[in-house]
Specification:
The protein contains three helices and five strands; from the N terminus they run H-E-E-E-H-E-E-H. It has 147 residues and is an alpha+beta fold. The protein has a three-stranded antiparallel sheet with strand order 2-1-3, with no helix packed on it. A two-stranded antiparallel sheet has the order 4-5. Helix 2 packs antiparallel against helix 3.
């Protein structure tokens, strides 16, 4: 089937390559363009060279080259989309983390009693000195990563 299609393309392209185009002015002064030579008296006749490339012409990209270029552009587009999406996800995650740190700092600075769970799972309340260390730690983290 492929060889039949290829043969048809070669046959058609060879007829186009051999086609000649003529341009002339007729007796009334009109410009005429035709694939058949003029008959009778004409003025200003010229032959226009056809510029249709041959099937195997090396100046034109082959179907495989065009397919490869298409796939390369498609892959680049997908990579760009993935990169943009990852950057967006990272930005959203950073924003959420900074917001969590701000809420944590707000809670620590509020003066409310803050309970924590120890290794045994028992609840204990945070001492004032420990609260001040946590506030300093959260502020430093906010300053360094959430500008």
């Amino acid at each position: 089937m492929k060889s039949l299609v290829l043969a048809a393309v070669i046959l058609l392209s060879s007829t186009f390559v051999n086609a000649q185009i003529y341009q002339w002015k007729d007796a009334n002064g009109k410009t005429v363009i035709s694939d058949k030579p003029p008959t009778g008296q004409v003025s200003d006749q010229r032959k226009i060279e056809a510029r249709t490339p041959l099937v195997g012409d090396s100046s034109q990209k082959t179907l495989a080259d065009r397919e490869m270029d298409f796939r390369k552009r498609q892959q680049e587009s997908q990579e760009k989309f993935d990169k943009t999406r990852k950057e967006g996800d990272a930005a959203a995650e950073k924003k959420e983390s900074c917001e969590r740190l701000r809420r944590n700092l707000e809670l620590l600075e509020s003066g409310e009693r803050v309970a924590q769970r120890d290794e045994k799972g028992e609840r204990s309340f945070m001492e004032d000195a420990q609260r001040e260390r946590e506030i300093a730690k959260v502020r430093q983290t906010l300053q360094s990563s959430c500008k």
